[in-house]
Amino acid sequence: MKITSDHFLEHADAALADPDKAQRRDLLGLFMPLARDAAAARYGDFEALRVHLKQVRRHTMEHLEHYLTRFEEEALRNGNQVHFAATPEQLNSTVLSICQDHGARRVAKGKSMVTEETALNDHLQQAGLDVIETDLGEYIIQQAGETPSHIVGPALHKSLAEIRQLFLDRHDLGERPLEQVADIVAEARGILREQFLQAEVGIIGANALVAENGSTMLVTNEGNGDLCANLPPVLIVCTTLERILPRVEDAMALQRLLVRSATGQPQTSYTSFYSGPQRDDDVDGPLETHIILLDNKRTDILASDYSEILDCIRCGACLNHCPIYVGVGGHAYGWVYPGPMGSVLTPLLTSLEQSNDLPNACTSCGRCAEICPANIPLPDLLRDLRQEESQRQLNSPRWRRGLRVHAWFLRHPALYQRLSGWLMPVLAWLGKRRGSLRTLPFAAGWTGTRDFPAPEGGTFMRQYRKRGKVRRRRG
Amino acid sequence: MAESPRSEIMARLRAAAGASASATTPEQIARELAALGFASAAVLPAADTCIAFMANVLANKGSVELAADRAEAVRVVGRYLYNRFRTHKLVAGNDPRIAAMPWRDAGVLPRFGAAENGDGAALSYARLGVAETGAVVTWTGRANPGRNNLLPEDHLVLINREDVVATLEDAWLRIRQELPAGSWPRGINFIAGPSSTADVEAQLVMGAHGPRRWHVILVGATPAEALAEAKVLTAATGP
Ligand code: SF4
Known about the structure:
Number of domains of chain B: 2
Distance between the termini of chain A: 63 Å
CATH superfamily of the largest domain in chain B: NagB/RpiA/CoA transferase-like
Strand content of chain A: 5-15%
Largest sheet of chain B: 6 strands, parallel
Number of strands of chain A: 12
Radius of gyration of chain A: 26 Å
Distance between the termini of chain B: 59 Å
Oligomer: heterodimer
Number of helices of chain B: 7
Structural class of chain A: alpha/beta
Number of strands of chain B: 12
CATH superfamily of the largest domain in chain A: NagB/RpiA/CoA transferase-like
Structural class of chain B: alpha/beta
Radius of gyration of chain B: 22 Å
CATH topology of the largest domain in chain A: Rossmann fold
Helix content of chain A: 40-55%
Number of domains of chain A: 3
Bound molecules: iron/sulfur cluster
Strand order of the largest sheet of chain A: 1-10-7-4-2-3
CATH class of the largest domain in chain B: Alpha Beta
Strand content of chain B: 15-25%
CATH topology of the largest domain in chain B: Rossmann fold
Helix content of chain B: 25-40%
Shape of chain B: globular
Strand order of the largest sheet of chain B: 1-12-7-4-2-3
């Protein structure tokens, strides 16, 4: 996927100017966290589950070579062909050559963020293949020629009316009402069912790879991934190294966290472990199965200070809880992964030069770290990226000058306190009538769209000292 | 010649892990892992495993019926098919347990084999049920081809009372016992609801690609009050 993250601010402005879409996002930001919280509360000790999986992940990452080798051995024993791809190009060309070996023309795909990352569809289509996304959300945006706005619900930015018009334009099915959500789903079902039956190759992702038995875990509600894995004669699993877990029970622990954080369910409709091609006892299933393990800079990230982002299980909860994501939506981020996890991953998987606005798209409110089922300290990682940005002089010179002035004052606390002690009463006096200020020198960017609340009285430090004295006297 | 992607990746992993990790023996790694143990399961909605299972099946938008034995199960299936489709057509895998049931008694004539596009109802005999999540477990093979879970309009599932376990870990324990190493099937499927989607307007719709309805029949001596209690629990705690 082509990256446009360097236009984050313009994209964000445009997104905020569309009240209809903004309202849809507000609802998402309201209801998804409620569903997640209710599910976590029903679970019992959700925190212990998070801590447990974190320990298993640390252990697995420490011995990744061991577990990867084990997975490969077991997967081969199960009759799979296992491929490694260091780069997105290698993954794409491996998939294409498998399709070409079979003279395939039609490919049915389950939802896979990894193949979004490598822009696989473009690659296959350029070679003349018909590639159809079968997850309903992915299908809708594929028909619309758009990109996902959310890693779990890729088409949640689109209204029913938009999707209706899209289907009327794209499907040659004559007059029909198509007014209810159920009509849309039924129409897509009919069209996609044919695709499943005709496809010569199925492509799916994996939510986890199980080292002990070489199987891959697939978690969906629609069952589209399972149809891709069961109907076409050739199956290709596109995944990345860090999905590995040692045991099936560990994959189950991940699944417990994943679905509750993503949708609030205890388990999705389908949780499947696929191990390879048809066995003697099978009457259906693919005759040939491939697993492609992509690196694409994961090994670099593993060796860096950002390795914890590899624990991400792609639940999307940090998106739903992020005031910036809910404010501006997924497309503003300009690449595959939006929200807090995307603001960490995009600079690492592309470059900080191309995406230096993303680590700044953070209010440091900390909600994402609070709910992230993988316990990733997202705000800390974003702060570290901002620091790197400053050191490498990737942010604007004006910004850096401002930060230098700020830093100088912070290193001279006496002066800082004297200055702020003098400034606050002035601001309080200026804003006395309205309780707020419309403009401030050096802060037009902030006051351009909102008022600055007038300070009520002394500074924090002054109050702190006063109360400290009181308490000391009492004590 | 350029390095293969595999050796390139493995070399990078070795470098990232550092000397200490590479020096660890497989036995040490296994011990470390064993020391981590397993996760704790979700709290069950009821102390009785079967009630908890039924409550969660209902919460997952499935429907539940009870059958005291296989003869009654046949009648339950027959009635379901007639009410839904006004026929007695059914497809089922070559599961000896299904084949041995007295289908003629209810006028049901199952077609044994793999489901086809256009089939109304398929029947599976689940290997396990999981109370923690309200899931049934099947695996692929002659007894239950993978497509039988996915292609029909309605998916009917029989599950024996004694095969309902409390947690996902218990389920894997049973699976490991029943499938000795080397006889791992192509696919192991946990099914916990009809095929559904919320991709349009975040509205939940059943029958996204696969079954619109998922009907679970619990076989064994279960009192009718147990099902009633499960329904109350789902109504109280349901999403
Ligand atoms: S970073 Fe955490 S909350 Fe965000 S998608 Fe990944 S696992 Fe979920």
